[in-house]
Amino acid sequence: LIALGTLPGTQYPCWNPTNAARSGNGRRNVTGKFKECFSLYDKKQKGKIKASDLMAVMRCLGASPTPGEVQRHLHFHKIDRNAELDFSTFLNIMYRQMKQEEPEREILTALSMIDRQKRGVISVSELRAKLTRLGEKLSEEEVDDLLKEAKVGPNGTIKYEEFVRIICLPRVDY
Questions:
Q1: What is the C-alpha to C-alpha distance for residues 45 and 19, in angstroms, rounded to an integer?
Q2: CB-side exposure of 120: number of CA atoms within 13 Å?
Q3: Domains delineated in the chain
Q4: Running DSSP on this structure, what letter comes out for residue 48?
Q5: Per-residue pLDDT tens for 24-48?
Q6: Displacement of CA 97 from its chain's centroid (Å)
Q7: What CA–CA distance (Å, rounded) separates 7 from 49?
């Protein structure tokens, strides 16, 4: 069973990656999780979802498409906003969206903006401050968990390219 939450501001069910990680489901079977979430929106049990539900389903699975991106995906597949799409098309759209978002690149860009001297390192204290105070704030415990993966240098700095590569690797559950 997938870890469910609700899409903020709606009654729509969705897969919650945080709950999934806590429940031990992690990232073991991404396609299976996509299928389960897709089926929650397949109200007629025909193996299809409404194109108008596409953004909600994508966001429930951790993607962050804009309305324009969703429209481009539908246009690419020649699907009208009032039509339906099957799971195969949905998988293709999710693959393209996730490839486009590439969280590793986004994180590296953000960290390189902090690295004014372009040395490729950031201090642990500065990283902790940014992660707990800006954007989607992390708790101290969450930052501690991330920093367990880091190789901290003798001067209290982390090579952020290596750190980002490590934290962006898929988790393997044994």
A1: 26
A2: 5
A3: 4-100 (1.10.238.10), 103-167 (1.10.238.10)
A4: E
A5: 444 446 788 899 999 999 999 999 9
A6: 10
A7: 17
- Cα separation of the two ends of the chain: 17
Per-position b or e across 131-169, b if 16+ CB within 10 A of its CB: beeeeeebeeeebeebbeebeeeeeebbbbeebbeeeee
Q: What angle do CA 75, 5, 85 make, to 5 degrees?
A: 25
For residues 124 and 130, give the distance between their C-alpha atoms in angstroms, rounded to a whole number: 10
Are 157 and 121 in contact by the 8 Å Cβ rule? The answer is yes
pLDDT band at 170 (very low <50, low <70, confident <90, very high): low
Q: How far apart are CA 73 and CA 90, in angstroms?
A: 10
Q: Give the up-direction half-sphere exposure of residue 11: CA atoms within 13 A in the CB hemisphere.
A: 0
| Bridge-based pairing state of the strands 13-15 and 4-6 | antiparallel
Residue 116 is encoded by which pair of tokens? Answer: 């004014």
pLDDT at position 154 over 50: yes
